[in-house]
Write a structure and sequence with these properties.
Layout: H1 4-30, E1 70-76, E2 82-87, E3 92-100, E4 105-112, E5 118-124, E6 130-134, E7 143-147, E8 152-162, E9 164-172, E10 183-184, E11 198-204, E12 210-215, E13 220-228, E14 233-241, E15 245-250, E16 256-260, E17 269-273, E18 278-286, E19 290-297
Parallel strand pairs: 1-3, 10-11, 11-13
Antiparallel strand pairs: 2-9, 3-8, 4-7, 4-9, 5-6, 5-8, 12-19, 13-18, 14-17, 14-19, 15-16, 15-18
Length: 298
Amino acid sequence: MPSMNNIRYHRCALLTVLAAVLLTAAACTALPDRTGGGVGGGGQPEPTTTATQPSNMADLPLYDGGDGYTTSLTVVMVIGEQRQGRLEALNEAHNYLFQGSAGQAVTIRVEGGEDGTDTRLTLIDPQGAVLARADDVEGRDPVLVYTLPVDGLYTARIDTYSPGGYTLTLSGDAETIIPEGVRIDPSLPLFDAQDGYNTTVLQPIAPGDVLEGEFASVFDAHNYVFRARAGQTLTIRVRGEGADTRLKLIGPDGVLLEVQDDTDGEDPIIIYTFAAAGLYTARVDTWVMGRYTIALEG
């Protein structure tokens, strides 16, 4: 019969061997699979990454027309196409880019949805300069009719005074429809002195002309463009016939030169000597809807 010491020795040896086997098996299980790439094998496992591939949209221009709003949508569309969108915030804007040709006439129309969206529309040229803005042309809906000056990628930018859905329609040339009450000569520069009013008249005026106009909204403005020589003195006179007007003189570079309101009673008058030759703008807006005349004298 073996002694108790021998029994203890063999039992300890057996436990030592068993522990070594268990540790080896656990270590092998924990090692990464370097041969099969996981279940099913097939070679080296594929690396994972959270990086996203750049899209073609990253190569497109992003212009905001100086409004500072967040551009939450950039879409490329073609003339003749219609798109629907939805603006959820007042500091949000959507950009629609389209290719245009020099001399091509386009109409950009935004219709608010059933939730009463009140949108504003800005047209931006391929270099990022604002060409025109529109607000309440057809009711609360903006419409722009414009002849494009150069070939390139233009931006129709939409923001809103009240969130909601809208439909954008871009048409061109034969499909162009000029809204009633809007007189726009697209060959003339359009400046608004950043007053935010909707320009519904853009037409030339010359010394000796007396033109008639009428305001259907206190949010509208009318632009009269004329050429002046360096050193020339001209008088711009607006007479209200129901309208209580204000008059602005804007330089060839869009800089506001002078503003007049109640110069002669409720009528504004500007007398100005021009330092440089160029195309200047007499911009008329109103406090009260009604008719008026504008005269350029000198």
